[in-house]
Target: Elongator complex protein 2
Amino acid sequence: MMSWKPEKTTGIWINVVTVGELSHCALGFYGGHWSPNGDSILADGYCGSFDLWKDVGVASDDWKPQKVPSGHFAAVSDIDRNSSYKLLIWQTTRVFAPWSKRSSSENEESWHEIALPQVHEESSLFDDLQADVQILGANMSALGLSQKPVYTQVSPDTTNRNNNDSLDTLETIPDAVPVELTEQPVEEQLAWHTLWPESHKLYGHGNELYSLCCDHRGKLVASSCKAQSASVAEIWLWQVGSWKSVCRLHSHRADESIYELVTRQEAHKRIIWACSWNPFGLEFATGSRDKTVKIWAVENGMTVKQLMTLPSFKSSVTALSWTDLSRRSNHGILAVGMESGLIE
Model:
């Protein structure tokens, strides 16, 4: 973002303020807006982010990035929490966590974005790192499709340096240095300092992935893809750790495995887009395009009984995540993500 004003003697318009890093905002900004008193600039980015800068200088201009609301610019398609209930993750992907603000009089806690992992990364960039290489930050490409790690040599031995010529270094990206965040990170800090290196790619499905889920013990990951034919309508089970495929459930039927279909029931009027188990009980929730969420119970391991239907939502339900914070089967929180982008 650049602001201009005419030079007093010649009338030529010159750039007086430049804020923002285009490489961090994918294809740049769509537009900007001045605050009423002219000491702040708000911009909207290509990837759905807001960016705010404020002139905090006294004797001269000193424009610094400020905290702004963050989140998604399209429908929420999936949502999940980690096992310790400290992080909340959903696609495209953004990671939110509780941020505690302690003062002498009160202890405030609110949720803020703390990491912005990217997709379409090449796993070989991360798998081939030597033990003497330390990743310090990230450099986002111009199109915003990937983040390359910025690394430094821990030891003076640089004999293997040529093997990592494709990686950015502190010499090429001098601003990527470790930082200790004392306040909620802004968009530029998220882009530089919150790289989550990709470690594996799992191949197998015939079409694009539609849904992912991990069991509450953290032993298995289930994946499914979009399908218009029975040959690719499969649920794959992956073993955490080895990341090998351990089972394929073809067209929702038993396929030479220890898993078999025990019951089948028409549950919603439209397509079911989400399902989530109660971590400590034999209940699960289903969410549908018909704007409803239903709660079910498994009885005797063979039958399913509907317990209740939540009040109808204003938009189609696209994501569910059931968390039992109290470690008791009937006490917990159910997060509901909707096509409109809202989460309740």
The helical segments are 124-127, 187-193. The first strand starts at residue 2 and ends at 6. The longest helix spans residues 187-193. The CA atoms of residues 150 and 168 lie 5 Å apart.
